[in-house]
């Protein structure tokens, strides 16, 4: 665990994570571990109550944004590669094909906890609200497949 209130030297500052605007992430490609393109980030969903990014909305298929299928991907399932301007998702095209999806003109009712639970269960992730507000340095190990913490967690 990192030492709190420890002075940071200038060399360490250069290695620290950088800030990025949410708008800059829209349009980033999402690829799997085999570097196959799965789609692009269409939108980002923020839980304003807990102050965390909840989902990256993945757009797949269609033509020029028309007829795309949208997938709410738990933010913790996406690994950002800012140098390559892409995200990595540990899922093949078959898994994505069977994932819960929706159309641009028919977003799901995100006020229902059951919807969130189904999404997180599908991707074998702990629900984001279990970690909302936790610090990166805190011990948040889970017994799930989801190792905690990950540096791509975003706290607003």
UniProtKB/TrEMBL annotation:
PRC-barrel domain ranges (all copies): 19-95
Top-level taxon of the source organism: Bacteria
Pfam families: PRC
Protein name according to UniProt: PRC-barrel domain-containing protein
Organism per entry: Anaeromonas frigoriresistens
Lineage: Bacteria, Bacillati, Bacillota, Tissierellia, Tissierellales
